[in-house]
Structures are given as structure tokens and as C-alpha cells.
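pasting for ref
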Amino acid sequence: MTHLAHHTAFIGGGNMASAIIGGLIRQGMKPEQFTVVEPYAETAAKLQQDFGITALPAAGPALAQAQLVVWAVKPQVFHEAALPVMPFTRPALHLSVAAGIRTDSICRWLGTQRVVRCMPNTPALVGQGITGLFACPSVTPADKAGVEQVIRTTGQSVWVDQESLLDAVTALSGSGPAYVFYFLEAMTEAGVGMGLTAAQAYQLAMATFSGASALAAASSETPEVLRQRVTSKGGTTYAALTSMDSAGIKASFIQAMQAAQKRAAELGDEFGKA
């Protein structure tokens, strides 16, 4: 608990904020150690119901007690949300989970250089996330340790030393859960086409993904070696993989991720203009 900020503010109280707040409360923080700004009554009611936190409908002096401010707002409203918050939070460390907003914009809008930007993914909602992190030069080692402790409540984290690499993190792990769901859809559809029920096919597909990931995590072998182990020449797996190779699936998949990376960079340009 040494590095946890005594008081943490959240600008935005939606799913990602709730996942982090829930994790911090499990680590021993109390509802009164949070200040949440959440204009939507329905979302605010959920924070009250789940955690006993009374959210503020708008920024106010209560924010001044926060050592850490977590920005969990939609990218397009970040600039607008920052204006009323800035006067109260200059001394704080700021952690942004807003996709695409670069630190130069955040620093400018908040009047501080103590900013960490992160790219989480949706499995954070069940404590199985992975988050890419980038710190501005004025962020101290103690600040970074505090951020890691906050992020640990949602899963793993990886620091990158160039902000542009967060676009690659976005393409890989940020958008990545959708790639898994896409394959789950295809595997389920194929299973149904082969005569299984949709429920059977989905259960088999889902357990295969989580099981293979667990096996890879428990092994020191590369994915290439693990793949070769289940691929005997002329067997069923060989037939499937040969078909995928001839269809150029790996190259197409890599190209798709490059498209995501390019789009992440474009969004950064668009959102940072204000």
C-alpha cells in the first residue's frame, strides 16, 4: 500500500473507472478516498450503489485533495472536461486512459508535466487486462510505482519509452480482444456448420482460446514451437494451417494490425488539436 495515493480523483465514472475503483477498494482504499466527477445521473447512481461513492456532477474544490487524477473520459470530451478541473489539480499526478490523446495535449490542457498516458484493454473489466504505459520525463520513479499499483488492479502492464509505441500497443492489445472475439465467431460458425449446436461450438472455441493461452503462459517455448508440437505432417492441424497459409491469413492479419496502428496515430492528430 506504500505507493497508493491517499486520495484519488476520477474524471469520468464509467466502466474503466469502475474497474479500477473496485480493484483499489479490494486493496484496502475506502470510498471516502475517492472523488469522482460524473455528470450522467445513471452512471453516478451505479457508483453509489456499487461502492458507496457519491459522484460530483461537475468539477469542484473537492478535487484539490487528490494526489492522483485518473482521466477516464471519452477522447472527444477530454479538452472540455479538463478546463474546469485544471485549477484544482495542478499539483497532482495525472493518469490518462483516454484513447488517442497525446501527452503534449494533456500537459497543455492541464498545466502540468506530471502525466502518464496508458492504453488499457477491455479484459481489465474482469482483472485480466494488459495496459501499455508511457510517462512524461518529469514523472518520478515513485509516481511510476504508484501508477503500477493502480493498474495492477486490472491486470498486467508494460512501459514503453516512446509515446508513438502506444499506437502499436493500441493495435496489438488495445484492439486485440476484438480479434479474439472475431476468431471465436468464426470457430463457432464453423462448428455449427459441422453439426454442433451453437452452445457446444462456442464452449469448445472459448475453452480452446483460454486453454491455449494458459498453456503458452506456462511454457517457456515460443508460439512457433508450441504450434509445431500440435502439427503432425499430414494430420488434421496440418490441413487447417496449410489452408490458412495458402489463403495468406497471417500476412492479412499483420496488415490489419498495421491499419489499426495507422488509425491510432490519426486519432491522436485529430483529438489533440484543441
